[in-house]
Design brief:
single chain; mainly alpha; 68% helix; 2% strand; globular; ABC-type vitamin B12 transporter activity; cell membrane; threonine-phosphate decarboxylase activity; transmembrane helix
């Protein structure tokens, strides 16, 4: 069981590197998203509907994934491994995240309008007024935040449960992805139905966000920075209790100032307890070199996450 669980992680990582994402017409998460879309309308009691959606929809998604893997394992253990790898592949994403970020960074100076359009695949913010520097900032912020949502969270859930059961592991990864999808589609202040999905996602992402910050710090060769007062202070700038951690870690390790206009500013020099850097001045928004380095750090952190998942799954 341990070796086959590790093999499922390797299958998922290999598929991600080779093809990035399943086609939309067969992508389980895309199909789940259409189900979630049916909830996004006016209700007499939207909070109650939101609670029901948060409880039952991710569980249904998880049950379907677990049932597929369990049925395959009955036929042959390696069929179960292959199906578990496919489930994990469909619930995690690294290559597409990195490719999308690279595209925005490459276009930011060459064609701002194209970069604004490309940013839509990374971030939900209004990019119509963003200049090249703010577009690069958005790409850096998004690649750090989405590393946690799109890779580390479902991968960690799979790895922790894999030693017990591949079917349970597949279900856990699908459940986490279901929670993330609900939050990304419904978890806005403008949507009354989104209160419960947003609160559930906050709870589920508490550990993965901080683990992602640690992986980024290790990838940068500064593992202790994630425990610094500077990162902890910056991590509280965004409204989310979780997304600030990988973004703050990225801001400090580059270093660069990350800004979402009207929402937050992550300035590594704004809180300075280190006498060797006091008075260094405010870092600029990410340059093209900074943004490319951020994408490279996210890639290394993602590969570290996969390696760690193999070790944990095989334990």
């Amino acid at each position: 069981m341990p070796l086959t669980a590790g093999a499922a992680v390797v299958i998922a990582a290999a598929l991600d590197a080779a093809v990035a994402e399943p086609p939309d017409r067969v992508h389980p998460v895309a199909r789940f998203g259409r189900l979630v879309g049916a909830v996004d309308r006016e209700w007499v009691n939207p909070r109650r509907v939101g609670v029901a959606a948060a409880v039952f929809l991710p569980l249904a998604f998880a049950a379907a994934a677990a049932a597929v893997v369990a049925a395959g394992s009955v036929l042959d253990p390696w069929v179960g491994v292959a199906l578990a790898g496919l489930v994990l592949f469909s619930t995690t994403s690294l290559r597409m995240l990195l490719d999308s970020a690279r595209e925005v960074v490459a276009e930011a100076d060459a064609d701002v309008e194209s970069a604004r359009l490309s940013l839509r695949s990374l971030a939900g913010r209004d990019a119509s007024e963003l200049d090249a520097a703010h577009l690069r900032s958005a790409a850096v912020e998004s690649v750090a935040e989405n590393l946690a949502d799109g890779l580390v969270a479902p991968l960690a859930a799979f790895a922790v449960c894999a030693p017990s059961s591949l079917a349970l592991a597949a279900g856990a990864a699908a459940w986490v992805k279901g929670v993330n999808t609900l939050d990304s589609m419904l978890g806005y202040r403008s949507k009354p139905v989104g209160w419960a999905p947003a609160r559930l996602d906050d709870a589920v992402m508490w550990v993965p966000a901080r683990l992602s910050a640690l992986l980024l710090a290790v990838a940068a060769g500064t593992p202790t920075v994630v425990a610094s007062d500077r990162v902890r202070w910056l991590a509280r700038r965004p409204a989310s209790p979780n997304s600030g951690w990988p973004m703050a870690t990225m801001a400090v390790t580059l270093p660069a100032r990350l800004v979402k206009p009207g929402a937050y500013e992550l300035d590594p020099a704004a809180y300075d307890l280190d006498p060797t850097t006091a008075g260094m001045g405010t870092p600029s928004l990410p340059s093209a070199a900074d943004a490319s380095r951020a994408v490279a750090l996210a890639r290394r952190a993602g590969l570290l996450a996969v390696a760690l998942a193999v070790v944990v799954a095989c334990s």
